[in-house]
Amino acid sequence: MYPLRPHRIYSHEALRVNPDAMERLDRFLGAMGRSREEVDWYTHEDGARVAAETAAWRGDETEADWKYSQPIVFTRFQCEGSHEDDPVFQARPQDTPLHNLRHILGYMPAATPHHTPEMDAESGMTCWPAMFLASVDGCPHGCVYCGAGRAGKAMVIALNVKEYLERGIRPVLEQNPWQKCFLMMGSADIAALEPEYGLFEDYLNLLSEYDDRYGYCHTNSDNVDWAGDLSHRERLIAVWSLCSNEAAELLEPCAPSASSRIDAMTRLADLGVPVRVKLKPVLPVRGWRESYAGCLEELLTRVAPETLGFTSLIWMDYERLCKVFDTSLLDEGFVEAARLGQEEMRDSRHGPFPHAQREEMYRFLIAEARRHNSRIPLFVSTETTRMWDALADVIGQNPRKFLCGCNPVQGPGPRHLASEVRASNYATNVAAERGAD
């Protein structure tokens, strides 16, 4: 586990009577050098206080203050009911942070639909529809582009894992037989919490009860050696988000370097776990071409990923770009294009950089990847239909059924497991764009 040093540790009183949860709590506390006596045990009725206290935490003043120190709240996953019907939620003080309170009370949905055709038609993204799973909210990496990263105020971790898997996840597996691969992530990098959390051991044990189900571990970390002790690591597929060493310092201040992540990939591959990689997000730092060329060379000469994808920095507008980054450290041509393209990118999920700059970036990265590996399947992740069409001459995949990092039907191989595979949302987005015209 990462060397977490939380400012405060909270735990829901209901966990005291759950032996499974208490074993996990003790492993966490032991790894952090803390004891049960240092835990703030809160009742369900006291959730609003915990939400207010974690929201008031100001560890984000400097990186040194923030790193690994955000509060941790251990909660009991609510297997039934809704926060909207909970009297504690209804009676909350008016200024209570709602997001934190929902999770602190244990109302983390076991599974949520992502990238439905309707979602992607609205956002302009081309991706695969899938049910995503989550038992943690919040992350220690401090990524500046993530609302649960540097802007996050706490890690909320559900500890009644066996109950969560049996009553929350098993029904999802059985109600979605078409989906073969499930991403366990939410807004968290759960690998950073292993092996103390022990979630993946029980999760993969559950998947092993089915003939053709696999679990994704999506990570920015280099904490992977715990996978060697998994009972069913043949059910695990590892997916990395990776950026160059230079970009990582600006994007992901509490995550390991690209080189450390590549080291971890080699160790996991040696254990027989398939590795897939996304350069996501690609930040155009000054000298980004040389920076990412070096990253790709190190990656593709040391690791044999099943697939490799690319995504430019997105999810923000020009104003936020200038707020989050010292733009003097970025490629001046990209920054100027973002400034001039504000109207073009207004309300776009793919801002701040206009299409032309993102296409330029992808063409360079694709060419560099092909210098080292002519056969690896390449893709652009959560990009537009327009981008897929623009890159058709170089990317080499059908955007309707493309191999990627974490789609719902691509088991180890890479290969499609299902004889009747649901397609990506590319065609839906094309139809939506034509309708808009």
What features would you describe in this structure?
The chain is α/β, with parallel strands linked by helices. The protein has a domain at 111-134 and 178-436: Alpha-Beta Horseshoe (pyruvate-formate lyase- activating enzyme). It contains 17 helices and 15 strands. It has helices at 19-32, 47-55, 63-66, 87-90, 98-104, 117-123, 161-175, 199-207, 245-251, 258-270, 288-302, 318-324, 332-340, 355-372, 385-390, 392-395, 426-436, and strands spanning 9-12, 40-42, 72-75, 111-114, 130-133, 136-137, 155-158, 181-184, 214-219, 236-242, 275-282, 308-312, 378-380, 410-411, 415-416. The N and C termini lie far apart (51 Å).
Task: Give a topology summary.
Elements (H helix, E strand, L loop, with lengths): L8 E4 L6 H14 L7 E3 L4 H9 L7 H4 L5 E4 L11 H4 L7 H7 L6 E4 L2 H7 L6 E4 L2 E2 L17 E4 L2 H15 L5 E4 L14 H9 L6 E6 L16 E7 L2 H7 L6 H13 L4 E8 L5 H15 L5 E5 L5 H7 L7 H9 L14 H18 L5 E3 L4 H6 L1 H4 L14 E2 L3 E2 L9 H11 L1
Parallel strand pairs: 1-2, 1-3, 3-7, 5-8, 8-9, 9-10, 10-11, 11-12, 12-13
Antiparallel strand pairs: 4-5, 6-7, 14-15
Helix pairs in contact: 2-5, 6-17, 7-8, 10-11, 11-14
Describe the structure using short key phrases.
437 residues; alpha/beta; pyruvate-formate lyase- activating enzyme; 8-stranded mixed beta sheet; 5-stranded mixed beta sheet; 36% helix; globular
Helix content: 25-40%
What Rg do the Cα atoms give?
21 Å
Strand order of the largest sheet: 4-5-8-9-10-11-12-13
Low-confidence region ranges: none
Largest sheet: 8 strands, mixed
